[in-house]
Amino acid sequence: SKATVSVLNCIYTSARPVPSTMTRMAGVKRRRDAQELAEEERRARPHPYGVAPLGNMYMASGGNVRSPGLGELHGLTDTVVGEVLGYLLAPDLAEMARVSRSLYAFSHADDLWKPLVLFALREDGKFFFRDSWKQTYLDTKWRLAGREGAPPTHVPIQVKNFFSDTLFHPHRDASMPILDKWVRVENVQRVSAKGMSKADFVEKFENPGVPCVITDLVTEWDAFKKWDWEYILKQWKGASFQCEAAKLTIEEFKTYCDRQYDDRPIYLFDSKFGETVPSIAEQYTVPDYFNDDLFKHLGASRPDFRWLIMGPTRSGSSFHKDPNSTDAWNACIWGLKKWIFFPPSVVPPGVMCSADGADVTSPISLVEWFANYYDRCEEVAVRPLEALVRPGEMMYIPHGWWHLCLNLTPTLCITQNYASRAGLPRILSFLREQPHCISGVACERRDTFAAEFTDALRANAPDMLDEAEAALQKTVTSSWATALEGGADEGGGFAFDF
């Protein structure tokens, strides 16, 4: 067919990469019951196109319709077929779905239609979600064209005897329950702000770089007392926030959260919320533990440092280290979050990263990581730290620690990164030695950012700068001495480590 020829041409002529609070206790119980019902419905939902796991083929009669329906593409793996189809625009992808039952199943993968919605329709990625990403494409296109009436409804066709792990696993990850063994372990120290001074925090947690959960602090904020959905929809009405690649109003994002069936739900992660809705930043207070943020001396030109975070169940952040060698805190307004930490020198199972840490590869969805790699944590020399953070609690994240966060329920948080006095030598070294890894500033500022920060410190905190520079020099001298004394004979050269 013309569609198949089009795909083959893409294979041979293109070398481009593939685009591939709570309402108090009564309200909490109502929300939990509603979530449990939603989860039951999710688990009972069959694959919309009839796709089954590959292993089921050996118990089925009639074989697998995959290869006969792919024609010349049958020798490619399912992953590569999906990557090839990722070159097509929506009209061509729709034509491809008409070729065969096999290509019908491939061409309706949400992973193909989601980027078409986010990147091909509008510059800001705005969309109007309904049922699936293909239906969302149709609805959004309909509205953008100014058409009247209801847009057409896509009705999936069940494909019999189509077996593919590649196409089935996203459905599995979106529908499988979050297992109790994934959330039962809690070994991160919990401390009350009522009995911990700033000096205690610095000594016990910040200086040694140890994660902790801080209680009895967030509960005093207006944000915790006021921010239920009724308040949010009234006070933030019409405000737009960055939701990954899309810019959505809070109403549109709530609609998406209520209707989505994604294995990787879109996450509201917005650094400009203070400018968009100033009252948000006025309804919480940075704890004394974290208010000595040295990046503040850069004023408005400081890197991005605070984010409003909101997402449905199964959303969250895959394994990463926080930017610019900073520490961070994350305050849970409502919801329940699972955290997993690995020390800076221990790469988590299933994660691969470049030598400089600039590029990190991990499983596509958070549930996929838990399903395939959580049990492998027992094989790692250093077992992870794990925590559940509940409404009104705060997580402290030390610099350099690998961490993952999975939302076990719909969740709303505030988070900030900060440059501490204790960490200044380390931060200066990072900014000077790895400018290409600096984030939260324009690309053209990366090469000069370390000098900008140094100048700001010299003007506003010269004693701290001198202290940090002396610590840096001492570390370099010590490292050279170790190397000259034969440290390299014991298994490696020296490297900066702050």
Descriptive notes:
With 498 residues, this protein is an alpha+beta fold. It contains 19 helices and 15 strands. The strands form four sheets. A seven-stranded mixed beta sheet has the order 1-2-13-8-15-6-5, with no helix packed on it. A four-stranded antiparallel beta sheet has the order 7-14-9-12, with no helix packed on it. A two-stranded antiparallel ribbon has the order 3-4. The chain is globular and about 75 Å long.
* Strand line-up across the major sheet: 1-2-13-8-15-6-5
What sort of overall outline do the alpha carbons produce when their principal axes are compared? globular
Tally of strands:
15
Number of helical regions: 19
Helix content: 25-40%
Low-confidence blocks of residues: 1-30, 487-498
Outline the biggest β-sheet: 7 strands, mixed
Percent of sequence in beta strands: 5-15%
The N- and C-terminal alpha carbons lie at a distance of 60 Å
Alpha-carbon Rg, integer = 25 Å
Average pLDDT for all residues: 88
The quaternary state of the protein chains shown equals single chain
**Structural class, from helix and strand content?**
alpha+beta
